[in-house]
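Sequence, structure tokens passed on for absentees:
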Amino acid sequence: MTADPARPVYDRIGRGYAAHRVADPRWQAAIDAAVGDAATVANVGAGAGSYEPAGRTRVAVEPSSRMIGQRPAGAAPAVRGVAEALPLRDGAAEVGLAVLTTHHWRDPAAGLRELRRVSRRQVVLTWDPAVAARFWLLADYLPEIREYDARLAPLAAVRSGLAPSTETPLPVPRDCSDGVLGAYWARPEAYLDPGVRGSISGLALLPAAVVERAVRRLAADLATGAWHARHGHLLDRADLDVGYRIVVSGRG
């Protein structure tokens, strides 16, 4: 795919995003706990508004007009902007929140410096590629994502940019309502749905031929029982660590 570098990534892939990326209440509780009792929150790379804590003053910064257009009534007021040059004053918020977004920033180091500038404390949801690489979708069908993750090093970039005080695993419930890449670890048939795949940036940004080849293999393995022979033991689990991590840094 030839991408326009000046166009926000979710202007290209964000159609119908809100329908598949519904905030999971267990993840919401974990993020709310990390945010704590902060009265003001700046949500950077805010997308369609998932995981913005309720009951406090919030502002959202998002570069994609398509994503802003999908924000529900009652979501925080959103302004267009990029992480590397936040349109916020120094110390504008007690907490700077960034949920599964830093890997889309053109300069993560600069964006994290900005997050520190505008907030006393930072809460970032990212993932550990070393753990994600063991997930069956990547290990068996889409090693190309593992290669991308290795170059991107999302958790390493956040560690370097924030000097985190805590790092907490965020397991994926078997019925996770937020259709992230690892959401369907116990529902493999979901990855056959183009709508599901289109709302996962790691799949939507891969070459279509690569994804289609992987989907054909997965469909065949589901039909023959090969997937269940290799991974059916997972179906007894309530949740799975696929690598997601909540990183907290800063004062307060």
Summary: The domain at 9-250 is CATH 3.40.50.150 (Rossmann fold). DSSP finds 13 helices and nine strands in the chain. Residues 208-224 form the longest helix (17 residues). Residues 1-6 have pLDDT under 50 and may be disordered.
